[in-house]
Amino acid sequence: MTNESASSRAGLAERLFELTRELADRDGVSGHEQAVVARLVELFRPFADRIDVDSFGNVFVRLATSVDRPVLMVTAHSDEIGLLVKGIEPNGFLRVEKIGGVIESLLPGRHVRVRGHRGVIGVRPGHLMTPEEQRSVPPVRELYVDLGFDSAEEVLALGIQVGDPIAFEEPVERLANPQRISGKALDNRVSCALLVALAERLRGAELGCQPVLVVTVQEEVGLRGAQMAAYRLVPDAAIVVDTVPAGGTPDTDLVRDLGIRIGGGPVLALASGMGGVRGHLAHPGMRDFLLRVAEERGIRVQRALFPRSTSDVAAVHLQRGGIPSMVVNIPRRYAHSPVETLDLDDVVATLELLEAAVRAFDATVSFDFLAGYR
């Protein structure tokens, strides 16, 4: 068992839910994370010794501590998948292009926001569809956003231009089981909420390291912000916090497909990107450190592989001469959809693991590749 009482865990879960909901409600499609970053800076300010935002939007939050090294980077990305305005038809409809891993079959009939203005992604009337059309997915070039106007002039009067971001409008809400929440941009606003809560819990703590909490941009389009941030910071080690797809649904087997379960605790991804995309293989020192911390604190974790995708850890660990890194994931269902779903118990347990790891990290943590082999 962890040191958290049942009542304090319930209060922490509520706090994390509210933070996540607030941050997810702010649109931050890749390259357009300003609303999210601005709010995060406000949320971090009471707990930070220093906050810097670089020209791309990566946020660096230094916590007050009496030591300068080792530097431990704890990072999460702020952006979400979405669309961009590709063109404006004379009758006011917006043509669109995907940004990030958008699933085309989930687009028709969705509510969206463009610069805060509500719209819908149109769909051909079912009465006119052929049976083949009803079974097929229209390509993105055939999709359009309807803002409710009948001319391009009315749309332009709103300030909407080519290149503007389009985000799903799907608020984060509790399901019938109130421990499970669902909505858009849980990937990765829940991890941003965790970093805020972590800063709050570490305020005034005596630590053996210099923690720097980093919020990166443009993860969904190639891990770009993480590459910049890790190169600039040059930490001694890094923990990436993200979400990860889960199995255990009728269409995703827990053994053959994806051995990750929501409600099963934070996930330590031991390998990712083995199918050819940029990925990582867990650094043995960081892996063993986090497993030891979890065991000592009684925090249940899941060990898993993430073969067909990756996270910011793939960019972070390759910077400079190599940064010992590990990713801690929160399991979620329905990845890259507007109804991503996760368990608040997993979120609380992830915060407990992160806090314990930062408190335990110091110069004695070994990154000797041959440790334990001899």
Detailed description of the structure:
This protein has 374 residues and is α+β, with helices and mostly antiparallel strands. It has two domains: 6-80 and 184-360, Aminopeptidase, CATH 3.40.630; 82-168, Elongation Factor Tu (Ef-tu), domain 3 (Beta Barrel). The chain has helices at residues 6-24, 34-44, 131-135, 152-157, 186-202, 224-233, 284-297, 313-316, 344-360; strands spanning 50-53, 59-62, 71-77, 82-88, 94-99, 111-114, 117-121, 144-146, 165-168, 173-174, 180-183, 210-216, 237-245, 267-272, 280-281, 302-306, 325-333, 340-343. The strands form two sheets. Strands 1, 2, 3, 10, 11, 12, 13, 14, 15, 16, 17 and 18 form a twelve-stranded mixed β-sheet that branches. A six-stranded antiparallel beta barrel has the order 4-5-8-7-6-9. A hairpin with a 2-residue loop joins strand 6 (111-114) and strand 7. Helix 5 (186-202) packs across helix 9. The longest helix is centred in the first third of the chain and has 19 residues, at 6-24. The protein is globular, with a radius of gyration of 21 Å. The mean pLDDT is 94.
